[in-house]
Each structure stands twice: as structure tokens, then as C-alpha cells.
Amino acid sequence: MTGEVHPDISPLAFLLGTWQGTGHGDYPTIDSFDYGEEVQFSHVGKPFLVYRQRTWALPDRAPLHSETGYFRSGGDGAVELVLAQPSGIVEVHTGRLNGTTIDLRTTGVALTPTAKEVVGVGRRLEVDGRVLHYRLDMEAVGEAYQFHLEAELHRVGEEG
Ligand code: HEM
């Protein structure tokens, strides 16, 4: 954390901190699963929030998905997100902030040659006090756009 939050991203400052919790995942092509998750939002005084996420399988705690990226503001409630994943996927999103709810949809997904085929992703993050709930839908591996994940995380650290 470095100095004051940049004014461009002050509308997103409610995300700052560390969040932990559990989620549930499903898709027509896979077995449904439960996972644990930790998310950190931080800033360096510049006009973006740094986002780091890691997940683990439950109950055995084996590492699952992780991702890292940057939330930016386009002004007037516009939100932008760039995100990279070790599974060879890069997501670029635009969306809207409404109160403490952010709705994002990809404008582009880039894939390395060995990545699973992901065509589009939608993400909704909702913060209510010390609880962050998100839902992720995707169009992937030949299936229509639909649910993949949802999780409920609780604030465990301030502006970490
Ligand atoms: C909390 C984050 C996530 C977790 C815990 C998670 C977990 C999983 C698990 C356990 C599977 C099934 C086993 C496997 O194929 O590895 C899976 C499959 C998959 N996930 Fe996720 N995932 C997450 C995020 C994402 C994101 C962000 C995307 C796309 C951008 C994505 C795309 C896929 C795809 C394409 C498959 C493969 C489906 C198939 O091969 O039929 N996942 N995920």
C-alpha cells in the first residue's frame, strides 16, 4: 500500500484488503467441485487496483486456479479489468460499477496454444459490508455461456 488511493480508482476502494472464503464450481463437461480462495486488492497510488487471487481444492488444499490482474476505472462508473491466468488465458473486460456491485464482460480473451478454449467470460462482484460474493459465467469448450463459479469471501484484512 503506497500513499493515498489515486482519485481515479477511489470508487473501487471498497475492494481494498484481503478476503477469504469458499466457492463452488460446475460446468457441463466436468464434475462439480468446492474450493477455498484468498483474494487481495491493493494499490500503489497509481490509477489501478492490483488484484491477486489463489484457490485450493477442498478438502485436500491442493492448489487449483489462480489469477492476477489490474482493475482500472474508465470514469463515470466504467470499470476495466486485465487478467492473466497460469492456464494460458488472458481476459480483458469492460463493465460497470453500480453501488458496490461490479458487472464485467470480456471484450477479448487471448489463449496460448495449450490453453482450454474460452470464448467469453462474465464476472459479477458484489460487496455487502465485510462480505464479497462473486459469480463467474463463461462460454468455453464448445458450451454455451453459463455458470462456472460462485464464491462468498469474508474480509480478513484491511487494505492489505
Ligand atoms: C476460482 C477460480 C477457478 C477454479 C477454482 C476453477 C476450477 C476448475 C476445475 C476444478 C476444473 C475441472 C478440472 C480441470 O479441468 O482443471 C475447471 C475446468 C475449467 N475451467 Fe475453471 N476454475 C476457475 C476459474 C476459471 C476461469 C477464470 C476460467 C476461464 C477464464 C476457467 C475455465 C475453465 C475451463 C475452460 C475448464 C475446462 C472445462 C473442460 O475441459 O471441459 N476456470 N476449473
Question: Care to describe what's here?
Answer:
With 160 residues, the chain is mainly beta. The protein has strands at residues 17-27, 30-42, 49-57, 63-75, 78-85, 89-98, 101-111, 118-128, 131-140, 146-158. It has a single domain, classed as Lipocalin (Beta Barrel). The protein has no helices and ten strands. The chain has a ten-stranded antiparallel barrel. A hairpin with a 3-residue loop joins strand 5 (78-85) and strand 6. It is globular and about 45 Å long. The termini are close together. Protoporphyrin IX containing FE binds at residues 23, 25, 27, 29-30, 33, 35, 37, 55, 64-65, 89, 91, 116, 118, 121, 136, 138, 140-141, 148-149.
Task: Please give a quick description of this structure.
This protein has one domain: Calycin beta-barrel core domain (Lipocalin, Beta Barrel). The chain is built from no helices and 10 strands.
Helix and strand arrangement:
Blueprint: E1 17-27, E2 30-42, E3 49-57, E4 63-75, E5 78-85, E6 89-98, E7 101-111, E8 118-128, E9 131-140, E10 146-158
Antiparallel strand pairs: 1-2, 1-10, 2-3, 3-4, 4-5, 5-6, 6-7, 7-8, 8-9, 9-10
Protoporphyrin IX containing FE (HEM) binds at residues 23, 25, 27, 29-30, 33, 35, 37, 55, 64-65, 89, 91, 116, 118, 121, 136, 138, 140-141, 148-149.
